[in-house]
Structures are given as structure tokens and as C-alpha cells.
Amino acid sequence: GAVVSQHPSWVICKSGTSVKIECRSLDFQATTMFWYRQFPKQSLMLMATSNEGSKATYEQGVEKDKFLINHASLTLSTLTVTSAHPEDSSFYICSARDINFLAGPYEQYFGPGTRLTVT
Amino acid sequence: AQSVTQLDSHVSVSEGTPVLLRCNYSSSYSPSLFWYVQHPNKGLQLLLKYTSAATLVKGINGFEAEFKKSETSFHLTKPSAHMSDAAEYFCVVSDLWSGNQFYFGTGTSLTVIP
Question: Could you say which of A43, A46, A104 has the minimum Cβ distance to residue B51?
Fold first, then answer.
């Protein structure tokens, strides 16, 4: 159980275009999902916290107009990188928190990541 | 403020020898602590977690970690390294005070020498 999927697993796009990444909790419901960014050989950096039915909370330094997050249902959150540039190339990882208290409100289940390359 | 320090950015061991990956944390409240493993170009897999139950936590693939409050440590160990253990390992702290947000360490890269 507790599987999180991401789609696509990798994507190449041209500079100036927009890219949407989906994060789905497959066998549980998640009121909260998180989006992380990871540069090569570095740790994960939290970009934003996404709550179902409300606006996302962005970390300091993350442009909310560039990284659009939508969490329209309890099983799906999307991250759209708008007007992508080469510096946006990175590994994007989402995670989801199970709303079932017995599963532990503190645990996050991670997706496999999406490799974005902007040319 | 919550933070995690992974004391070694890189650890190299011979196959069959013990593994020790060190993690120290700072937390204002009763913390939850996690170890995750990440293989190249893959997502994170949970190895084990501590959530105020037994201080010695056993995880998958023979890994275990001991929560030591007096030392604010949560070191990851394995008695005998396997080639498949070569990966990046992240220590994570979370607590209610921070709304259960995850704070990641900078990671430790484990190399296993045949």
C-alpha cells in the first residue's frame, strides 16, 4: 500500500514552454501533498505544500507564478512549470501524506520523481 | 528550529563489513525521525522510522537505527554491507511543532567495494 506515482517520469521541453507534472496517490487519500526539487548530488528542497481544495503554500524563494500547483482532488496534485528555462532543469519529487490518522499523520510517501530537462 | 546534520557526505565500505551512517538532529519537540534511501534517478524508499516507540528501530534490508535523545542522534547501521546497498541515504526529522514538515539532511553517499 501507500503508493505514489508521478507522470511523466522524464520530460524534455524547449525553453519558453510549460510542462505539467502529475502526482497521484494510488491507494490512499491525501489532503496534503508536497513538491520537492533535487539538483544533482544534492538533497531535496521543499518547494511547496499543497492542500486539497486550497492554495498551495510556497517556500521562500520559490516563485508561485512560475511553479503552479493545483490539488483538485484527494488523490491528485499537479505542478506546472511555466515558461521553463534551462535553469529549471531538475529532478522533481512529490510526496503525499495519508489522511488516515492510524497511518501516522507524520509520514510522507514519495513518488519516483520526474526528470525535467529544458533545452 | 528543526535541522538534520549528516556528518559524512560520503562513506565507503567493503562488501560484508559493517555500515554506519551518522545523523544528528535538532528539534524543538518530540521528533519523528526517518531514514530514506535513493538509488540513482529513483525516488525515495523508506528504510525505517522512529515515532516515539522503541528507541531501536529495525527496518528493511537489514538496516536498523537507534534513537538516542541524550546525544540527539539517529545513526543508521547494518552489520554486513551488500553491493546493492550502494546508494544515497537521507536522514529526515519531523515534528508536530513544525506541522510535520520534513527536514532533510544533505545526504550520505554509500559506496560498497567488492
Answer: A104
Residue A103 pLDDT: 54
Nearby residues of B47 by Cβ (< 8 Å), 6 or more positions away:
B34, B35, B36, B37, B59, B60, B61, B63, B76, B89
Q: Whose CA is closest to A74, among A110, A106, A30, A117?
A: A30
Residue of A3, A37, A108 to mutate for B, most B C-beta atoms under 10 A:
A108
In this complex, which of B43, B46, B105 lies closest to A93 when CB atoms are compared? B43
- Give the per-residue pLDDT at B8: 94
Q: How many CB pairs under 8 A join A and B?
A: 46
The CA distance from A20 to A1, in Å, is 26
For chain B, residues with pLDDT lower than 70 are 1, 96-99
Please report which confidence band the pLDDT of residue A13 belongs to, taking 50, 70 and 90 as the band edges: very high
